[in-house]
Amino acid sequence: MDNEADAVVQRCLELSEELCRRQEATPELKAAWEQLWRDTLAGERLAHSAIRHACMVLSLGASIAVAEGDYARSVELLRSYFAHPDIENAQCECRASLGCNLADSLLHLGEEAEALALYRQVLNSDNKPCAAKALAFAREFVRDFCLEQEATAVASPALTGFVAEVAERSAPGVAGQLPPAASYGQLAQTLSEAGG
């Protein structure tokens, strides 16, 4: 890795740590990411960038967007990652993580059918370690989504069915008592139990 590539990785790590520490996207953090974006991926640069750098920079940008509640921006950034010409050579963990992040953002935008289809696509990867990582990400993201909803509100049968699938893959038998359309509280509890 050359010095410029090292600098991109280091800057992404620094900004990610700051976002985790602050638990919010400060104007300074957002400006620093936007400068990193302009310097590394903006315009035609994305198509010629290393897929690893695209993963790091776009993941950070999507995390900042989510911290601001801008799920549409998160979707835009993450879709550009999956349009990268070298996506087939991306690291398993990046593909699983960003695929689940994209599905989570779609779910928050009310695009449930598309979100669940994407989750299933990532979970059904032929790469077993990648599918296992995706299962852990999906379980966490969907549980957190359910916890953000009114606990007694009834989730759709489609989401309930997906939670049952994830729970069954994670810990067989855990989802056995879910009704066809469970409450968000029941879904969150099921996913928590399935996660160990």
Overview of this protein structure:
The protein has 196 residues and is mainly alpha-helical. It has a domain at 1-89. It has ten helices and no strands. The chain has helices spanning 3-22, 27-40, 45-48, 51-67, 71-82, 92-108, 112-123, 128-148, 157-170, 184-194. Helix 6 packs antiparallel against helix 7 and helix 9 runs parallel beside helix 10 (184-194).
Summed up, the helix count is: 10
Radius of gyration, taken over Cα atoms and rounded to an integer in Å: 18 Å
**Count of DSSP E strands?**
0
State the major sheet.
none
SSE run? HHHHHHHHHH
What would you call the structural class?
Answer: mainly alpha
Strand content: under 5%
Average residue-wise pLDDT: 92
Shape: globular
Taking pLDDT < 50 over at least 5 consecutive residues as the criterion, the unreliable ranges are none
Quick tags:
single chain; 196 residues; mainly alpha; 0% strand; globular
List the helices and strands and how they pair.
Layout: H1 3-22, H2 27-40, H3 45-48, H4 51-67, H5 71-82, H6 92-108, H7 112-123, H8 128-148, H9 157-170, H10 184-194
In summary, what is this structure?
The protein is built from ten helices and no strands. By secondary structure, it is mostly helical.
